[in-house]
Amino acid sequence: MKSPMFSIVLPTYNRRVLLQRAIESVIAQEYKDWELIIIDDGSTDDTKSYVEELDAKNIIYRYQKNKGRSAARNVGIQKSKGEYICFLDSDDELVDNYLLCFQNKIDGHQNQLLLAGTSISKNNVLHKIIPSTEYNKCIIQCLEGYFNLMPFCFHKSLIRSSRFNENLFYGEDFKFIIPLVNNNNIKIIENCTSIVHQHPNRTINRVFDDIQKGFSQLQISVIQTIDDNWDLIENNIGAGLLMEIKQNKIKDFILSAAKQNLSQAKKINNTQGTVSISNLTLIFQRLKGLIQF
């Protein structure tokens, strides 16, 4: 059987209600040479029965005990047969020209990395993010976290030996993406071909359930990745800007943590020294309604 041009890896866990939108966005693709690999990471809802009812030969379903989305993505990569590999989260969706835009940009050379625009949906309003065609500016966008995995398309040769860190639940996509974008040319598609849906139950929101643990995740996934790739990134954007981006990552985490637990945020800030205590207190007071915005 001929291998498909694209493999789309979709990890999911107890998201039957949201999953339908994601799967239907794949089925609706204008470019039809694809396989969808759904890795069910231990769901206890009716995800399995829903997928089986679809009865589609190019939709592959695999159930595994709950190990986290990084482990699920790694299994999806291993099972993929496509020439190019893409990723889709179960609470997001693809625009119907997603694969077609990638296909039109592929020129036959291997080791290609492609990046399209994406849209953030918040309160039913779409906010478009277009990658810069200037390589150094695109690198900055990636470092600042403008793009998750979904707008990327990877030739299989680029990621067959890559793995998501299965000990991470926060920033694992950053740790995966940054070495790839810094070591390869990027082909840019100036169309928004995917939609990220903001909602209260997004997995990323859980990082502040345990703020100290969440900060440890940030250090491993984001800070360590920047440090490990420092020389190469510095060549692209300069040391000053890179240091600023690194500090902003820590500062943004601390400020977000202060919205949940001021004392824990202060403890982290005492070791990092990136945010003034008055700013942390101000955020906390505003959220508690002690002062007005």
Helix count equals 12
Determine the strand fraction and express it as a percent band. 15-25%
**What summary fits the major beta sheet?**
9 strands, mixed
Overall structural class, as computed from helix and strand content, comes to alpha/beta
Q: Can you count the beta strands? A: 9
CATH architectural type of the largest domain: Alpha-Beta Complex
Summarize the amount of helix as a percent range. Answer: 40-55%
Please trace the helix and strand order, writing H or E for each element. Answer: EHEHEHEEHEEHEHHEHHHHH
Task: Provide the CATH top-level class of the largest domain.
Answer: Alpha Beta
Write a compact overview of the structure shown.
The protein has helices spanning 16-27, 47-54, 69-79, 98-105, 135-143, 156-159, 172-183, 211-228, 230-237, 239-258, 262-272, 277-287, and strands at 6-12, 34-41, 59-64, 84-87, 93-94, 113-122, 125-129, 152-155, 186-197. With 293 residues, the protein is an alpha/beta fold.
